[in-house]
Each structure stands twice: as structure tokens, then as C-alpha cells.
Amino acid sequence: MILKPRLEDLKIIGFYLGKIILGLALTMVIPILIGLCFGETNPVLDFFISIEISILLGLLLVKICQTDKDLNWMQGMIVVSLSWVVAMILGAIPLYLSGHWKSFLDACFDAMSGFATTGLALVQDLDHLSYAHNLWRHLIMFLGGQGIVVIALSFFVRGFSGAFKMYVGEARDEKIMPNVINTSRFIWLVSIVYLILGTLALGITGALNGMKPFNALFHGACIFMAAFDTGGFSPQSQNILYYHSFAYEVITVILMVLGALNFKLHYHLWMGNRNELIKNIETRTLFVTIIATFSVVAVGLAQTGIYPAAITLFRKGFYQLISGHTGTGFQTIYAQQFGTDWNQLALVGVILAMALGGAVCSTTGAIKMLRIGIIFKAFKEDLKRIIMPEGAIVIEKFHHIREVFLGDKLVRSALIITLAYIILYVLGALIGMFYGYPFIGALFESTSAAANVGLSCGITNIAMPSVLKVTYILQMWAGRLEFMSVFTILGFLFASIKGK
Amino acid sequence: MKKKIKLTLIILFLVFSPQKAVFSQSLSSGELIRNAKEYDGKLIVYSGEVIGDVMLRSEFAWVNINDGENALGAWMSAALTKEIKFTGNYESRGDCLEIVGIFHRACLEHGGDMDIHAQSLRKIGNGRIVQEKLNFDKVSLSLILLGALFLIWILTLFKHK
Fold first, then answer.
1. Does residue A9 surpass a pLDDT of 80?
2. pLDDT at position B22, please?
3. With a cut of 0.90, is the ipTM above it?
4. Check: CATH 3.30.2350.10 for B2-129?
């Protein structure tokens, strides 16, 4: 028998959702400060209005749903999935008020794209956007990359066991420290240290490349947030092509790869355990899949002959490939060039890379390396069983921080999530094809949205059908949360209607 | 006037040059990107607003020019950039330029970037500082919301008492 959710459930969900909204409202102070520094009056007002709406909503929820009860698993998952939807709506308000987005749906699209660290964008006239709004676009990538709930866990929630349930709901099931709040704080520590180093590196490179010093630093901070959090937004409409700089490309590649690594791996590297990098199943799988997918891209590009020099082919092919594989979405070519200059083989290489993604407990989306590694190990185990004598005991294990025995439960879980992602990629592609886009293009864009990548072959633009915009928003949401929270909310809705 | 004559002479010379075709009419960025193969290595005319920074690289510079559809990078002599007074951003509209140069679908000199190597430049519109006007609707809305927040605060105080 399905039980109808009680009023108590709604109160608990509302209370914690309110707390997360209040946390989100506080982050809007940053663009307000930037706007005030530059005398951007109307942008400051946009954020002032948004912060007021957010505080109003957050306070109302906290006051009406006041409770001292802890979350259970179902409630934790629902709080997480709802907080991403609410964050999208509240985050879209200042964007829409700026007048640079054609409709509120477009602003919601970019807000979800930012929070989910995707990078697909529907902004218009980006080159004239204010500093405050531009910073917000990148900041939401930083916040979303760490996890909206992680923010609340780090600063606004003090030691309750429900914290772990929300943390898991946000597709982070690994504890680095003994408790989840310290884990969240460690994630912030890593990110802030890299933020300072990355911003300086990009800022200095930008200044040496002829940018005005302040602009170089501002772009450095924005590009860092988009690269390390594998987001893909950029302050200029040309994306990374704007900088015309090999050094900039090299630094962003390093940052993208760092962002695609497991935070737990970062912890071990920080502790001086460099062997972990070599032994870890995720880094090994990432290395193999990068080589495999780049080989496909390189053969494809060589066939087209667009880049006759090997170094040029490598620079263009490898950059888009790494950008896709790490789930970032930075481009050094125009979106339309994927369709006009790249052939289908090269596109398939990029689609495969996008579909695979980076490490678990990182800021990337998609299937992820741990699952690919586990599935590969399971195949290897089955092959061994066939080859070896019937009585032989076959045991397969892998190294992921520690030695782990490959159990059926692990393989099943990896296969289910992989299958869910493949279905999500195909569903989006089918809807794209329904609206008349060619198969490869539709699959490319759908995979990019669902895997939270952000590379575009030109389908994502303000003229695309609203249904497709909503489809991509849902894909970005489901892909970022890795389904469980989304399935829970669907179950909750079903129980609300059909339950007794 | 002198510059206009110079530009006309260059265009005329290249129109009748046997090696390279010239597209004397200004082409849009969309047209160039979509049909990059056709225009690759050809002399073209492109116009639009200068956006972002003029990035000087020793004797040359990168200038990104947006025609409203996309922005394309133009590689030119640093001397040519002296005419540029305003670049487009939130605070200002950039100067509008018309450049004549060789279009590259995947420039070998610049790591495969799609760019234009400008040979000449003409300012066709002056940029300006954009005066920001205060939006009173936004001011009203923010005051109403502030009032609502204040009301909730008062109600909370009463509830505590």
C-alpha cells in the first residue's frame, strides 16, 4: 500500500528548503558588492529585488514549517531536488531583470545550466552584460559545482544526521572526512585555494596577453569558476576563442582536469599520497578513455582535412575533447563549426567523451569513470570465468582510495545508473529529432545537456522550441542529481495523488 | 578622405588581382562561419562593433569585432588600433569598424582559430559611454518587497512576545 505523505513530511521538507533558500539569498550579496564597486545601479537593483524575494520565501517557509525534527531519507532527497528547482527560479530572477534574456524560461535555462555546471546558454548580447550579472553567472557555477546543499551544510546547518541524506541526494556519496559537514568544508577549502591560484594564473596570463589588468583578473576569476567547476560559461560571447591565447588554453585544460578529479583524490594528493593518482581506478580509466576518444576525434578531423598541420589538429581536437570529457563545455571553435567543419566521426568521438564524464564526487556530470571502470572490471571477471576451469574461484578487485572487491551489488548499481544516463541521452535526442534536428546534432546537444557538459553544435539558441528548452532543463537537473533525488520526488508526487 | 581613397585603391587592386577573389560587400559573421570553406584564404570585408579589450601582442593586436550575430577575432598591426577609442562593454558602445582582410577558416599561424588578418581598417561609427538611467519600476518593486520583509519581521516579534 502506498502511503500518502503526511503534513509533518511537508513541514520538514519546507523547513529545510527554507534554510537552503536563505543560504542562497546570502550568496547574492557578492554580485551586489561588485555592482556597487562599478556603479552599476540597475544591476544592483536586480539583485536587491532577487535577494528580497529569496529572503521572503525562505523566511516564510522556515517560520510556517518550524520544526526541530530531523530529515529521513525520502525527505532529504526531496529537499535536494526541490532546492535545485527553487535555486533555478530564484537565480533566474536577476538574469531576467537585466533584459539580456528574451523570456523568463530562457533565464531559467541559463540559471539551471549554471547551477548544474552545464554551460549551455541562451543569453543575448553577452558582450554588454554588467560585471554584476556576469559574476553571478559564474558564481552559480561555483555554487552548483560544490553543491547547493554543500553550501548550506558548510555554513548554515549545524550537526544533524539528516545532513548526510541531503549530501547523498546531491550525488555525493563519498565522505572525505569523518563527518559530512567537515567534508563539505574540505571541499570548500580545496576550491578556495584553487580559486586564488587559478585566478592569479589566468589573470597574469590575461594581462600578459594585452588585457587591461582589472579585466584580466575579473575574467581570470570567472574562467576559473567555469573551468574548475566544469561549467563552461565565459564572460564573452566567443567563449575561450575570445582570448586567442595558447597559454590560456593550457591553463584551462589543467583546471578542467583538476575539476574532473574526485575530491577524495584531491585530499590524498594534498596529504602527499601521490601514488593514489596512479593507482586509482578513476584516473586510470580517465587516461584510457581520453586516449580512446581522442583517437576517434583525431581520425575524424584528419579525414576532413580542416586542420592540415598536426599541431593545429591536436590543439583544436584535444581542447574540445577534454572540454567535453571533463564536462566543462569551453569551446575554441564556433558552435556551428561542429556541424560545418567537423565530420560525424569526430562528433561521435566528442559525444562518447561527453557521455562518459569525469570522476565521482567531482563537479562533473555524466556516467563517470568509477562506473565505467567497474563495468570494465565486471566484463573482465566474466571473461575470466569463461576461460578458467569451472572450479576456479575468480575474484576481481580494484583500487579506489583503498582496495575494493568487485561485488555484484556494485556492478548492478553502476549498470543501473549507466543505463539511466543512456536512456536520458537518447530521450533528449528523440525530442530533438521530433523538432527536425538531424540525429547526430540532436544526440550531441542532448548528451551535452544531460551530461552537464555545455558544448553546443548550434541547436541551443533562443529560437529553439520551448519544449526543447524545458527538455534540456530537465536533463540538466536529472543528470546533475544522478536520478535518485529526481526519482524520489516523482514517487512523492505519485504517493500524494494515489496514496492512502 | 585620404584613408577612403587608400581603401578604395586597395579594394580595386584586389578586385582585379588574378589570385584571390574579393568580396567587396561586407559579410556577416554568420555567413562567414557557415560558409567558411568558400571564404577561406579570400579577401573579405567585415564590419561590426569592437568588444572587450584590444589585446596588444608586441607589434600586432587582437581586436574582437561583433556584428550582432557573433564576434570574430581580427589580427592586425598595432598601429591600426590607434583609431579605436571605445570598446563595447556594459558601460560603453564600442567603435564600429569596417575591416578588409584575409579570412582564415582555421588559421595556421594562430593554432587553427577562425580569424581575419586585417590589412586595413576604417571607423564607420563612433562609440560612446552609455549613460545608465535609473529604472524607477525596479526601485518601487524593491521598496514594496522591503516593506513586506519588514512586516514579516514585525509579525515574528509579536509571535515571540
1. yes
2. 58
3. no
4. no
